[in-house]
Design brief:
8 helices, 31% helix, 250 residues, globular, 11 strands, three-stranded antiparallel β-sheet, alpha+beta
Length: 250
């Protein structure tokens, strides 16, 4: 059960957060939400796909981390942080932190301002172990400043993604993607319900359409999604290197 509190340097002066990754912290998930503000960086390590909860629902971009429930192939106890990749999605990095909104009054009227909250029941929250959130004088610690940047990327990305998906849909660039493969062990996998960018349709856009995408900042994001598809094969190879659980049980 989450217990969210508005973060402040008095109540949380001695609060620490473990900046490590592992199944014991709830990081054993097969996919996580990602946002346009991080596509360029994440395309180096992860397949970026689109999903929707229902046929006519909104799209959400995700980074694919594994092929079955509770499988994160990037978790690695031998890695310093417990995560084996050059970059980590902001929705993972944020750990127990989230953005909330606080109503404030100014000369223009009432508006909702984004503020940082923390889930005090999150397994990474401790009283002594891990990274401090505040300096002894009360200012933000370097770790909290880093997390604030990640939260900002999420906040800005959420504002961008609606327009991005709308532009992609208007140009008929989104297509279903089915992922099918066979492991070295002979085990077969098939993932459905994912979407991506149709590279052929993108190449057929006229100059005006490409210019519109470029000016909006969406063209490079489309290319990032297409480029990220090359990470599917390395992800399969990570799966091949995992112990065969069926053989272990035998």
């Amino acid at each position: 059960m989450a217990r969210h509190e508005l973060l402040n340097n008095i109540t949380h002066q001695h609060t620490h957060v473990v900046h490590q990754f592992g199944s014991q912290y709830g990081d054993n998930v097969a996919s996580v939400p990602v946002f346009p503000t991080e596509f360029i960086e994440l395309q180096k390590d992860y397949p970026i796909l689109f999903r929707r909860d229902k046929e006519d629902g909104p799209y959400q971009a995700i980074a694919l981390l594994g092929f079955s429930d509770s499988e994160n192939l990037f978790l690695d106890e031998s890695a310093a942080s417990g995560w084996d990749a050059r970059s980590i999605p902001a929705s993972v990095e944020r750990g127990p932190f989230l953005i909330g909104f606080q109503r404030q009054q100014d000369m223009h009227g009432e508006k909702a301002e984004p503020v940082v909250h923390i889930d005090m029941d999150h397994p990474k929250v401790t009283e002594s172990e891990g990274q401090p959130l505040f300096l002894s004088q009360g200012g933000n610690s370097p770790y909290l400043e880093y997390i604030s940047l990640k939260l900002q990327a999420i906040h800005q990305g959420m504002a961008l993604q609606k327009g991005m998906f709308s532009a992609f849909e208007q140009l008929n660039l989104i297509e279903p993607i089915n992922i099918e493969f066979e492991l070295n062990s002979g085990q077969k996998h098939r993932l459905i319900g994912n979407y991506g960018i149709n590279e052929e349709r993108l190449a057929q856009l006229n100059g005006q359409q490409l210019e519109q995408l470029h000016r909006a900042g969406y063209l490079q994001l489309a290319f990032a999604v297409i480029g990220s598809m090359t990470n599917i094969r390395p992800l399969i190879e990570r799966k091949n290197r995992q112990p065969d659980r069926r053989r272990e049980r035998a």
